Amino acid sequence: MLAVWLLLWAGAGWSTGYAMAGLLVGMALYLAFHMVQTFKLHAWLVSDERRHAPDGSGVWEEIYLEFHQITQRSRKRKKHLRNMLAEFQASTAALPDGAVVIDAQGRIVWFNEAATSLLDLQSPKDVGQRIVNLLRNPGFISYMADPSEQRQVEIPAPTREEGVLMLRLIPYGNNQRLLIARDVSHQKQIDAMRRDFVANASHELRTPLTVLRGYLEMMNEETGEGDALARWTGPVREMSSQAWRMSRIIEDLLKLARVESDGMHQRQEEVDVPSMLQRLMADVRRNNAKNHRFSADIGEGLFLFGRPNELESVFSNLVLNAIQYTPVDGEIEVRWWSDSQGLLFSVTDTGIGIPAQHIERLTERFYRVDAARSTATGGTGLGLAIVKHCLEHHDAELDIASEPNHGSTFTCRFPRARLRSRQAA
Ligand code: ADP
Fold it and tell me: Which of 212, 264, 301, 382 is deepest in the core (most CB within 10 A)?
């Protein structure tokens, strides 16, 4: 194309005796044409209105077409992203849970509508602020510092008296975290109502049951051979033992309700666990009716920061269960020690063991592997539920390992932060 154009101009120049000049004029015109097209392209690219490509000829037509297609594609992509962003913002705004995006330095990047009302955040003032400066709850601050210790944390709602929020951190991307805040006040209220109901019902049953038990005991003592009531001896004894059982269940229900409701507010202190366990072991050895062999390996000076009543309840429940579910002449070992992760308490017995499918559910209220056996041995089915709640108050976990007919090991793991080392006396 260029060659034909130049030949034409060279030919025209040659016919007038100026072939070189003709060639130069041809070249200059050619260059001028391309410069005009380049300016046109530039003007089109910087203009706001790029819907229609300018007209061009030759190679410029193809260039305009290609550019036009690229801008169309990017316009479509932008529109798609804009729509997606709008949809994402609309859906997060509709979420009842507060959502806050936090960067690697703990600063707020973005939050939704619900976070405004739940966490008292203000937009745009609080964007860029450190979240721990705005939510100044000690539990939340330590959770932010080390979320691996617990899955979530509950804090009093900053905007509502008596309200409770559950906060959960979800890590994602490049050290970013998403904080989810859920209002659990209603659920807490229902839980409290259920607890209060069980506690009140148990309390109301306690007095009439005490009266019944008193009379049954009197009848038990007074029904002897030759007596007019002699044939009632068996039934009265049975009634008396069932009344005792009911009393034990009521006492355990009240204990569970107490642990659930005010456990969190109970004072915590440095508990001398070694002495507590020595006392407990002396007690069980004294009352050893089944000729069990006891051994105890109790780490000296390992104190635990916690609530003494609840810890005593955990240790005695686990030891008494081992005694209850281990036949005559069995062995029971109690250990208290520390490792790199924390403090551990375990009870190992050579008793009847627990089939694997039951282990998961043992801490449920009234769950018993063999209800008849538990009842016969005086169990209420509430011991491990009490243990679980007490351990929760100490951020501790219960591990159960067991093999039917060989025995079981119940291990409690307390976090290292609760260890208080003391010189052994
Ligand atoms: P219970 O009052 O019936 O002992 P718990 O809540 O203390 O209630 O225990 C629940 C169930 O777990 C028991 O009924 C029993 O079946 C089982 N269990 C608990 N400890 C042991 C153990 N050391 N060996 C075997 N089974 C056990």
Answer: 382
